[in-house]
Amino acid sequence: MGESNTNTPSDDQSTAREPSITVLIHEAIATQKKSDLNDCPPLYDVVNPDALDKLFAPTRKTERHGTVTFKYCGFQVTVNADRTVELEPIDAKSS
Questions:
Q1: Which of 56, 63, 43, 49 is nearest to 83 (CA)?
Q2: In a 10 Å sphere around its CB, with 0-12 CB exposed, 13-18 middle and 19+ buried, how is residue 76 labelled?
Q3: Contact (CB, 8 A) for 42 and 29
Q4: How far apart are CA 65 and CA 72, in angstroms?
Q5: Alpha-carbon distance values, 45 to 27, 71, 72, 73 (Å)
Q6: What count of other Cβ atoms lies within 10 Å of the Cβ of residue 61?
Q7: Is the model's pTM score more than 0.70?
């Protein structure tokens, strides 16, 4: 009865709450398009948002590396290991 069970993050998890990758992608596209995302399909139609969040979740022990690139809402979206999002408009004539 004297034991205490505390839910604390493991050494490889961060305690800081950062926005999800999905939020970062949506914010970047909304800023670029200067509009809301009502004309865009759900992100999960093209990529698994939970997998992106897990792949690029901040850690205390190791530095993340790599990128994920996919097409979404008229852009080629690149998510970098440092959680930055790059957008390149897809030219309608070339696709």
A1: 56
A2: middle
A3: no
A4: 22
A5: 18, 11, 9, 11
A6: 9
A7: yes
